[in-house]
Prior knowledge:
The chain is built from 4 helices and 7 strands, in the order αβββαβαβαββ. The chain is of the alpha/beta class.
Amino acid sequence: LQHKSNSYTMLVLLSFVLFVLTITSVFSAVTIETVKKDGKVFKVFQDNSFTTKTTGIIIGVGTAAKTDDYINIGTVIAENNKDVIFFILDPVPGNFVKYDDNSYINSVITIKQWTLDKLIPINYWYIGGHSASGEAAADALKKLSDIQGFIGFDPFTVDISTLGNKYRELNKPSLIWSFQKESCFVNPNKGGVGFYEHAVTLTTTCQNNVIYN
């Protein structure tokens, strides 16, 4: 009897969980679409409860990262900015290195063409990236004339001599987040934290590549 009771309780709990997941998916207006086009891979996040999209934001993935790693942030941005269509981009799928600006530029062109094909009129474009893609986006921004601003998630710079110049001299509105701890390959001075006047540098021992926050 106890076994049957436990089984029944588990069945009820499982049914409740499935019900909650179903309700959540029904009422969530955010759609996520994976697009593979011209050798590029990008995820598209948009809230379909609001059909007019005026702003496009493109964020490139970090070194060794994939577009699937950014589903949470993409969903939150789309939910809270209904006039925004948000793209998570992998400019060089299968390649560990993400800081090539030419690949990033070609990816922006591909995404813009995708929006035209979908009849989505975008008035304002912002580009950026996480880590190495942040550097690629910053370099690409100098060659693209129709981009309104830059968004960086711990943007990286390969050449440490450019620290303090690369992101300050973009000549476009910029929003940059940073970190204070050290990873296996990136220290705070080579990431965005060095661009802040009162940044605090914390050095830690590298463990499994996930020390930074």
